Amino acid sequence: MSDIPGGVDLAVVFRRPQDVPDVARDVIEASPKYLWLQLGIHNDEAAAMIENQGIAVYQDSCIKQTHQRLAKASVLKH
Q1: Residue 54 lies in a domain
Q2: 28, 31, 47, 52: which could form a disulfide with 57 (CB 3.0–4.6 Å)?
């Protein structure tokens, strides 16, 4: 992630929960605003490490479903 020009705003992870602590190091280095762990992915240890760096963490949630739900509720404006 640190090689992406202009930085990263959102990191979405599709890895096994036990792999997330290793991913967390890359996330912290890239310093995005948000880390999103997809459905079925939950790791409190990694989330705490990342949140301690001021990065918001969402766990065990599908970003597409969440976006659709919020858009339907008129929370997001297109």
Answers
A1: yes
A2: 47
**Which residues partner with 34 through β-bridges?**
10, 56
**What is the rounded CA–CA span in Å between residue 41 and residue 30?**
20
Name the residue among 78, 4, 8, 3 with its Cα closest to residue 50. 8
Please indicate, yes or no, if residue 19 is contained in any of the structural domains. Answer: yes
Number of domains in the chain: 1
Per the CB < 8 A criterion, the answer to whether 70 and 76 are in contact is yes
| Structure tokens belonging to residue 11 | 């990191």
Which residues of the chain fall short of a pLDDT of 50? none
What domain range is 23 assigned to? 10-72
Res 62: pLDDT: 93
Q: Could you list the beta-strand ranges (E) of 1-78.
A: 10-13, 34-37, 56-58
Q: Can you name the residues that pair with 12 across neighbouring β-strands?
A: 36
